[in-house]
Design goal:
- By secondary structure, this protein is mostly helical.
- It has one domain.
Length: 183
């Protein structure tokens, strides 16, 4: 975390902008909202890309079920890398209550989704940005999903961009607060 503590405001803005740009691009070209968001955050924070495997099953609301938005999940996973508990914290009962930092930041990201989209659920977000929810397990609906432009900038790439932007802001703001002793 220390390498991000002394960043100028301009460097912070650049990281946030780059996270959003990368997340939109990855969703548009390769698909997988959680993977797109998480990979963008891994890259801007120079973290191991191998972690990306964790994000695969979260697409389209976890396994295409329309549940919690995959882009939101990717952002929460990145928050966890910075502020989550280590194995030792976990098995020792988390005496410093570290988990509550991650909980607070995940809640903040969820609230941004709810403010922007009215929900943190993929079904609801798809309905808002695409006009309806698509069951991607149904081949006909999956085809319709593609045809309405779900992987264009009016669709899911806009959501992954927001998720990565918001998560990067939250992470960088918390690092700055921690360095100033404000947490």
């Amino acid at each position: 975390m220390g390498r991000f503590a002394g960043l100028s405001d301009e460097e912070v803005r650049r990281i946030i902008k780059e996270a959003a740009k990368k997340a939109a691009y990855y969703e548009e070209v390769y698909h997988g909202c959680c993977e797109a968001t998480f990979l963008a955050l891994l890259e801007v924070f120079n973290l191991p890309r191998d972690y990306m495997k964790l994000a695969t099953g979260f697409a389209a609301g976890i396994g295409f079920k329309g549940l919690t938005c995959g882009a939101l999940c990717g952002g929460v996973m990145a928050i966890g890398i910075f502020f989550g508990r280590s194995h030792l914290d976990y098995i020792s009962g988390d005496p410093t209550r570290k988990r509550y930092v991650a909980f607070r930041l995940a809640k903040e990201l969820c609230e941004k989704f709810i403010q922007e989209y009215g929900s943190a659920l993929c079904k609801d977000i798809q309905a808002k940005i695409l006009g309806k929810w698509y069951d991607l397990w149904d081949p006909k609906q999956h085809k319709e999903f593609e045809e309405v432009g779900a992987h264009t900038l009016k669709g899911c790439p806009s959501v992954t961009a927001n998720a990565a932007r918001w998560a990067a802001e939250i992470i960088l703001n918390e690092i700055r607060k921690t360095q100033r002793g404000q947490t």
